[in-house]
Amino acid sequence: MPQVVTLSVVTPMFNEREAVDQFVGRLRPALDGLGESYEVIAVDDGSRDATVSRLMQLRVDWPQLRVVALRRNVGHQTALRAGLKAARGEYVVSIDADLQDPPETIGEMLAAARREKVDVVYGVRSDRSTDTAFKRNTAGLYYWVMRRLVGPWVSDQAGDFRLMSRAVVGVLNDLPEPRPVYRLVVPSLGFSSTEVSYVREERVAGETKYPLSRMIRLTFDSITGFSASPLRIATWLGLLSFLLCVALIVTGLVAWGTGATVPGWTSLYIAVLLLGGVQLICLGLLGEYVGRIYAASQGRPAFLVAFDSAAPTPHTAHPLSGGPLTAEIEAAELDRERAPIA
């Protein structure tokens, strides 16, 4: 039976070779200073650099570090899901490896959870001045939309830096959602919670893993995963376009009855464009929901683990070599396979 520890720290990583040393350099002292049993689960989300190999090297001197490498890139939230399923701690903290969320705050979160006897402690950003104006504005717009579509319980300054009790993690692991958005799922469960504020720092190295395209994808997943409001919006758009068409018909009949000469192509052109645009928007919204239903009906796993450094068997057969390999060698082979071709 797996040994239970007090604290599990789950950190998804994607191409974080430049940041991993500094991240470990700050995370390990923060956890060692707690005086609690702990484990760190680094989930490699299909990195195409030497992230996995470096993690395995660091693991030699840090036995609490556990490396879970996924077979391909599945996205931040799904990688976090894999880490939560692997975590054994009574409390589980999720944190990114870019050091924008300070590891030193973990001790405050654990103390707050015990002192106030709550199941969730959110890390709330009291200062985001290190983010670009574009990032702050788009994030503010995202949370503004979420609070109105999903519910007022969504915090506008709480991301994925949080501490959760084993009860919360158990519920999350039992959810059947293929693409959960945990910053919305966790508060929606209604567990008792509190907040710990911190100052958001600059990314220590590398590039952001949430460019505009992924932020848009996260927004779509958030909306379609938590609210049917877009379908209602489509209904209202259809009703509005119908009323506009009625008005155009009335206008046309009046013009015909009075004998006025009205060029017909302009009104027809506008009507066709308007109706076509509304219909395409509605079809797109319906398609988004149908696509999620289709993906769920397939029942495919959201992620597959290439190897786990805490697996019971220390050697595995690598598909390319056909022979047994240690986890360290397999990690290096995995990095080499994923490396982009020059």
Automatic annotation (TrEMBL):
Keyword Plastid carried by entry: no
A Pfam family assignment: Glycos_transf_2
Glycosyltransferase 2-like domain: residues covered: 8-169
Localization: Membrane
Residues passing through the membrane, by range: 233-256, 268-290
Keywords: Glycosyltransferase, Membrane, Transferase, Transmembrane, Transmembrane helix
Keyword match Cytoplasm: no
Listed Gene3D superfamilies: Spore Coat Polysaccharide Biosynthesis Protein SpsA, Chain A
Membrane topology according to the record: Multi-pass membrane protein
Family: Belongs to the glycosyltransferase 2 family.
Record-given protein name: Glycosyltransferase family 2 protein
Protein species of origin: Paractinoplanes hotanensis
